[in-house]
Design brief:
α5 (111-123) links the parallel β2 (102-106) and β3 (127-131). The protein has 426 residues and is an alpha/beta fold. The radius of gyration is 22 Å and the shape is globular. The strands form two sheets. It has a seven-stranded mixed β-sheet, with helices on both faces. 38% of the residues lie in helices and 13% in strands. The chain starts with 6 loop residues before the first helix and ends with a helix. It contains 17 helices and twelve strands. It binds pyridoxal-5'-phosphate (PLP).
Length: 426
């Protein structure tokens, strides 16, 4: 399907184009395996000489259709679904980093990603240096080493809601011969398409707005096809030299612009196996069909909630890049003129304890470890998702100890604000 179609059309139609007599709706291929007529046909698949399905750990038609829709929405050449956003982030880096390598990362990132990068990947011998994303190009460049393989950031960070200057990050990454990987979970491609600003790889926790109904944990990696791996072949031997586990095939030679995403599927997914179940991919696809309707409603509601909070004298501070006096308002206007996301963070006068009492008094907004779905929900990161971080790490990640993360849903905003008002008054 043409990727020239508008995002709204891609949300509804991309990925699955049935032929004559085939189901109108994307079927769930609930099958581990796929049949062939000859042994030779199957052998060619294992050598990556033919494309086709043989085992769902590598590829599944339902998953591929949904991945193709996400690739079309982001404007990439290919995508791969993963079992979670965590898996997507891990694979996105592990596809080009090995023991002894290093990457640079914005310090404004999701707590789970922080643990993955700072603790678990370190055990694999892959080191990360965190940088303040608002620092100058010179300061961020100073974190690069000869063994640096990537630069990573979140378009809008969860939960600190800092907006990434994608063009600046792309310039820095490219001046060091490495790709920029951007986690675009919060804006979704409805509000921002990082490839248009120079990012090379996009990752998603599809668990959030893309699914949008809090039914399915999942992730995705999208390849722009733009990064010239062969121009920096010494840095990326995994892509530019023969893969012994595929009879000496070289990904960049065999797959060109699809080298990165093909390796992620054929090698990492084959060996590590964090696939999304076809059932979950089906549910994700249902979510994607209304992404273009839901995201603007989340943003409108969040804008109204942020404006309400900023005028309330019980509120100490509000962070939402849609507010004109927000530090990231100009960057948000540049990269996401149509809206940013539905998540607002704020602190109450009285700090941590008052925050917890406020949350306990909410009726409509539920306390859940989730964000970015249809139902308004609320979380106190310092007590919940970011519990493992020290106060110093919290502040480094832009998470104040009194920060309340308020994920504004798509209910009627008057009801959401009334709920906030009654809880503030208690
Ligand atoms: C939730 C989240 C993740 C992790 O995704 P899971 O699907 O929960 O594994 C990664 N990045 C961001 C920005 C997130 O919000």
């Amino acid at each position: 399907m043409s990727t020239k179609l508008k995002p709204e059309t891609l949300c509804v139609q991309a990925g699955w184009t049935p032929g004559k007599g085939e189901p109108r709706v994307l079927p769930i291929y609930q099958s581990t395996t796929f049949k062939y007529d000859t042994s030779e046909q199957m052998a060619r698949l294992f050598d990556l000489e033919d494309t086709g399905y043989f085992y769902t750990r590598l590829q599944n038609p339902t998953n591929d259709a949904v991945a193709a829709k996400i690739a079309a929405l982001e404007g990439g050449v290919g995508a791969m679904l993963t079992s979670s956003g965590q898996a997507a982030n891990f694979y996105a880096l592990f596809n080009i980093c090995q023991t002894g390598d290093h990457f640079v990362c914005s310090s404004a990132i999701y707590g789970g990603t922080f643990n993955l990068f700072a603790v678990t990947m370190k055990k694999l011998g892959i080191e990360v240096t965190f940088v303040n994303p608002d620092a100058s190009e010179e300061e961020i460049s100073a974190a690069f080493r000869p063994n640096t393989k990537a630069l990573f950031g979140e378009t809008i960070s969860n939960p600190s809601l800092e907006v990434l200057d994608i063009e600046k990050f792309a310039r820095i990454a490219h001046s060091h011969g490495v790709p920029l990987i951007v986690d675009n979970t919060f804006p979704t491609p409805i509000n921002c398409r990082p490839f248009e600003w120079g990012a090379d790889i996009v990752v998603h926790s599809t668990t959030k707005y893309m699914d949008g109904h809090a039914t399915s944990v999942g992730g995705a990696i999208v390849d722009s096809g733009n990064f010239d791996w062969d121009a920096h072949a010494d840095k990326f031997p995994g892509l530019c030299t023969p893969d012994e586990s595929y009879h000496g095939l070289t990904y960049t030679k065999a797959f060109g612009k699809m080298a990165y995403i093909t390796k992620a599927t054929a090698q990492l997914m084959r060996d590590l196996g964090s696939i999304q179940s076809p059932q979950n991919a089906f549910l994700l696809n249902l979510g994607l069909e209304t992404l273009h309707l839901r995201v603007p409603q989340h943003c409108r509601n969040a804008q109204a909630v942020a404006e309400y909070l900023s005028k309330n004298d019980k509120v100490a501070w509000v962070n939402y890049c849609g507010l004109p006096d927000n530090k990231y308002h100009d960057l948000a206007q540049k990269y996401m003129p149509g809206g940013s996301c539905g998540v607002v963070s704020f602190g109450l006068k009285g700090g941590r304890d008052v925050a917890i009492r406020f949350m306990d008094n909410l009726k409509l907004a539920a306390i859940v470890t989730h964000v970015a779905d249809a139902r308004t929900c609320v979380l106190h990161p310092a007590s919940h998702t970011h519990r493992q971080l020290t106060d110093e790490q919290l502040l480094e990640a832009g998470v104040r100890p009194d920060l309340i993360r308020f994920s504004v849903g798509i209910e009627n905003v008057d009801d959401i604000i009334a709920d906030i008002a009654q809880a503030l008054n208690k």
